[in-house]
Amino acid sequence: MTSKEDGKTKKQKEITVTDLPGVGAATAEKLAEAGFHDLISIAVATPGQIVEAAGLGEVAARKIINTARNSLNMGFESGTELLNKRAAIQRISTGSKAFDSLIGGGIETEAITEVYGAFGSGKTSIAHQLAVNVQLPPDQGGCNGIAVWIDTEGTLRAEFLQQLAKAKGMNPEDALKNFRGVRAFNSDHQELLAEKVEDLITKEGLNVKLVIIDSLMGHYRSEFIGRGTLAERQQKLNKHLHKLLKLATTHKLAVYLTNQVMARPDVFFGDPTEAIGGHIVAHTSTYRVYLRRGKKGTRVAKLVDAPALPDGEIAFMVTGEGIKDVVT
């Protein structure tokens, strides 16, 4: 590589938001307030989003986006490069080796994992376990990170987090300090809180590695009633989920969603239980797991959808010390 090419590469690596054409300090501040803190967030934005955030014209917005894309070299990658990126993916243990094996080693970063099931199936218990386990080092099933919990149903219990931390041999007070929880009171509030997670990362410098929403559809289900509101609900939900996926990809964190279920009246044989949210949730979720009660106090996890894993199901236990394998 010549010195000229080396200098060009170095310049591209060092480019910041204020180096983009037509972006001064004031415009950069407007962009940051709208969630566009770095080049990648601008590169994957639409011209309309930049126009709305910074008050610029569409031509200027396109120029900014194209410059950000060019500086990040967002072209096609070889299979080898993609494989190397996959090697950097982290996974958070559920506490059950069988459950981890079912989903490819644990809850994956840069992905959305949706777990659905009836009440009492273990969705929220797994969420509590993950919020503790994410703080562990990688060799113990964690990411040395922090969990952020958006609570839509009043299910978050700090005392249970303490209990699980003790069972893991952690300092309970440290475990609570390395956690952020908030109650969402409607769907708009839920969406706003999800967007504010980025502030915890970029402004407060927190190493957020897990975002939990328990549950995803609770508010949408209660606010949008009747078939006449379905299109509006799905449009809002689609936008919400894609922002979560962008957050997971941009900041290399895991998103864990719990979801409610309904019984399909047209199913006469087999399990009529189905997740709510329709195709929007199904297509956006990277991994989908169905939970149900099993025999003798066990829970059963069934892998419904995954990019490169076979269908399967396993049994696990929900105990006072967390998620455990079934002892045979």
Question: Could you walk me through the main structural features you see in this protein, from its secondary elements to its overall organization?
Answer:
The protein is of the alpha/beta class and 328 residues long. It has two domains: 3-72, DNA polymerase, domain 1 (Orthogonal Bundle), CATH 1.10.150.20; 85-325, 3-Layer(aba) Sandwich (Rossmann fold). The protein is built from 14 helices and 13 strands. Strands 5-4-6-7-3-10-11-12-13 form a nine-stranded mixed sheet, sandwiched between helices. α4 (47-54) packs across α5, α8 crosses α9 (158-167) and α11 (187-202) runs parallel beside α13. 36% of the residues are buried. The model is unreliable at 1-12 (pLDDT under 50).
Features:
328 residues; alpha/beta; DNA polymerase, domain 1; Rossmann fold; 2 domains; 9-stranded mixed sheet; two-stranded antiparallel ribbon; disordered N terminus
Global mean pLDDT: 91
Briefly note the structural class of the backbone.
alpha/beta
- Please write the CATH class name of the largest domain: Alpha Beta
Biggest sheet: strands side by side, in what order? 5-4-6-7-3-10-11-12-13
The CATH superfamily of the largest domain is identified as P-loop containing nucleotide triphosphate hydrolases
In the CATH hierarchy, what is the architecture of the largest domain at level 2?
Answer: 3-Layer(aba) Sandwich
Question: What's the order of the H and E elements?
Answer: HHHHHHEHEEHEHHEHEHHEEEHEEEE
CATH topology of the largest domain: Rossmann fold
| Largest beta-sheet characterization | 9 strands, mixed
Shape: globular
Domains (count): 2
Give the total of beta strands: 13
Tally of alpha and pi helices? 14
**Helicity range:** 40-55%
Q: How much of the residues is beta strand, in percent? A: 15-25%
Quote the distance from N terminus to C terminus.
61 Å
> What ranges have pLDDT less than 50 throughout 5 or more consecutive residues?
1-12
Radius of gyration: 21 Å
